[in-house]
Amino acid sequence: NAGVTQTPKFQVLKTGQSMTLQCAQDMNHNSMYWYRQDPGMGLRLIYYSASEGTTDKGEVPNGYNVSRLNKREFSLRLESAAPSQTSVYFCASSVGQNYGYTFGSGTRLTVV
Amino acid sequence: LAKTTQPISMDSYEGQEVNITCSHNNIATNDYITWYQQFPSQGPRFIIQGYKTKVTNEVASLFIPADRKSSTLSLPRVSLSDTAVYYCLVGGGGGATNKLIFGTGTLLAVQP
User: Fold this and answer.
1) CB–CB contact B98 A97 (8 Å)
2) Is pLDDT at B96 greater than 50 in this prediction?
3) How far apart are alpha carbons A72 and A1 in whole angstroms?
4) What CA–CA distance (Å, rounded) separates A5 from A22?
5) pLDDT of A9-53, one tens digit each?
6) Which of A46, B21, B33, B96 could form a disulfide with A34 if both were Cys (CB 3.0 to 4.6 A apart)?
């Protein structure tokens, strides 16, 4: 049982480049989330998907787009990367809104 | 969304019981209280969740007073491996605002 799988684990981008972070869960969870974590800070919600077919903005959505491809997969896209997007990105999923989240191991992204 | 306040850091020694208190004065009627643990370079891990009174599992206990404006995570007999950041979150109360907002957490340092 893999839980929440994120790819890639590490990535270096040049300013202006685009990329997609992939996330997949095998627990049949309804809700999925993308967070970013900067050094010494807590996690900040970028986007979430309460259920398949729906997405919504979180605290810090600017510069990002998401796609809930199906119930298992929720991707995060950076269209034009900026140094301010250097961070560790975590994907999470949950059965529903009143249940604990399961997190992936993170993607460490550096934009130079 | 309910805002939480918890100590930035705490120190303890192996074998001691540790209590981390979180205040959430504007908790909504149907919000749950959830605690997560995060080790460096890993995603947060669900510890415990409760709505009222006391909840206990194999890892920790969660004490919630009747007014639910605060909660206390209790870790019995901590070990060095319990050194981590602990996050208190309030939310999941339904509707479109089911997303959980992480604060900066409490860094627990356990010494020998």
Assistant:
1) yes
2) no
3) 14
4) 8
5) 999 999 999 999 999 999 999 999 999 999 877 889 999 998 899
6) A46
Q: Which two tokens stand for residue A45?
A: 């919600």
Which tens digits make up the pLDDT trace of B76-89?
A: 999 999 999 999 98
Yes or no, beta carbons of B100 and A45 under 8 Å apart: yes
Residue B65: exposure state from Cβ atoms within 10 A (0-12, 13-18, ≥19): exposed
Rounded Cα distance, A106 and A37, in Å: 10
B29: three-class secondary structure by DSSP: coil
Q: Following DSSP, what letter does each residue of chain B receive, concatenated? A: ----B--SEEEEETT--EEEEEE-TT--TT-EEEEEEE-TTS--EEEEEESSEEEE-SS-EEEE-TT-SEEEEEESS--GGG-EEEEEEEE--SGGG--------EEEEEE-
Backbone angles phi and psi of B79, in degrees to 5: -125, 175
Is residue B39 within 8 Å of B49, Cβ to Cβ? no
Structure tokens at A102: 């399961």
Interface test with B, best of A98, A99, A102, A107 (most B CBs within 10 A): A98
Chain A residues within an 8 Å CB radius of B104: 40-42
Q: Identify all chain A residues contacting B36, using CB atoms and an 8 Å cutoff.
A: 100-101
Local structure of residue A46 (DSSP, 8 states): E
B43-53 pLDDT per residue, tens: 999 999 999 98
